[in-house]
Task: structure prediction
Amino acid sequence: MNLLIQGHSFRYEMERLAMMFFPMEKINWYIDEAPEGEAYVLTRLEQNDNSINLTAGLVDDIHRPDSIVLEYVDEKETELAMGRLLYRALARDTGITPPWGILTGIRPVKLFREQMSGAENAEKVFHDEFLVSPAKTELAKRTEVYERAILEQNRPMDFSLYVSIPFCPTRCHYCSFVSHGIEQARKLMPQYLETLHKELMDTAAIAKELGLRLTTVYFGGGTPTTLSHQELDLLMGWVERYFDLSHLQEYTVEAGRPDTITKEKLQVIRSHGAGRISVNPQTFHDNVLQNIGRGHTVQQFMDSYSIARAMDFDCINIDLIAGLPGDDLKGFCHSVDSAIALDPENITLHTLSIKRAAGLGSADVHTLQKEYSMAVDMVDYGYRALDKSGYHPYYLYRQRNTAGNLENTGFAKEGKDGRYNVYIMAETQTILAAGAGAATKAVHPITGEVMRVYNHKYPYEYIGRYDELRERKQQLHDFFKYK
Ligand code: SF4
Result:
């Protein structure tokens, strides 16, 4: 779809909004003129002496945009008014009503909290200003209560450690992470672990010199359990040796892919004190697993889950995805019911990203769009079933281009909320990260300012250029000293 920008600087937001209504299309933006004879979305601002004229909407053989006149308001208000005008016009002309209204960011709960602390009525702002549906406003409100309970326990010098293992047995078709098939990457593993060893030592030294206090450890990726049990033992041993774990409140290892899980690996994980793991089926249908190239069966998931359940993990998380190709509402409801029947402490409901789904090989855009509209009903069923079974939403985030413009939501049983997941979304706790593709996010204890240090994305870059990264991480000293 073409997007015409006239007289304003709100291109980024207008582009994001247009994407929600034309999810399968690339948005091409133009200034001043759209290509002749083609449909386009118009966004125009005209400044008069005492007022502003805004025009926004679809222009084609049938549709025309809407206009409003504003008394002079500031730039932020003008941008919001343009967003609302465009949202309403496109909702009318396309029949799509994105439930998060004009919000395009990935952290709606953080925004809800900011509105609350501004002494405004956050629900009213969400509904009237951002056009968020009553159901999503309620979800944000409910989730915020649980997030806040965790955030209030955070002390200014607390931090989390993230360790990245960007390898998986095979690559799922919908994957958005930089993850590498273990077969090709196996030869890099000794050097990867050696570099990670150095980075863990260096990171622990920084934490010690700055007087930071470690409260949560999270191994993610990728799939950390792609490592052998001996490699896991070595790696978790380094964490124990270099970091002070005496204040640790939570230790998580993602064991996402059931085809990587063995009893030995889980024993190693448990023996090093990690109490939380994820074992992710994504769906309880073998044909859907095949469609997404997941490389394991439902039975393999069930076997891995029972091995894990037989050990004394505090919390097992199960991920499900709504909107997978080949799934339908009945099938998804069965997956939700099957997950609940296993009684895990956490269930996370994701919605498939449309962009990535396009890479799944379906050429029929219309079919894909139909499948995605079903995601709304799937998620709705999931939320009701989880609610009835004693789970509450404790963190959520949005990705661009998800089926039905929905969200990913983590649900937990009472007292089983995952702190790290909340910290990463709220951006109020320092996260020191190690490994390829990881990102350190330092939060200044007094000013709240955030400094980011990005590690190299690919393992070979990470290995070859570690000295550069080491230098960059030393800047954390200056950042924390600065007041
Ligand atoms: S298991 Fe996760 S990280 Fe690995 S390929 Fe699949 S989606 Fe990507």
DSSP finds 17 helices and 18 strands in the chain. The first helix runs from residue 11 to 21. The chain has two domains: 1-97, 146-434.
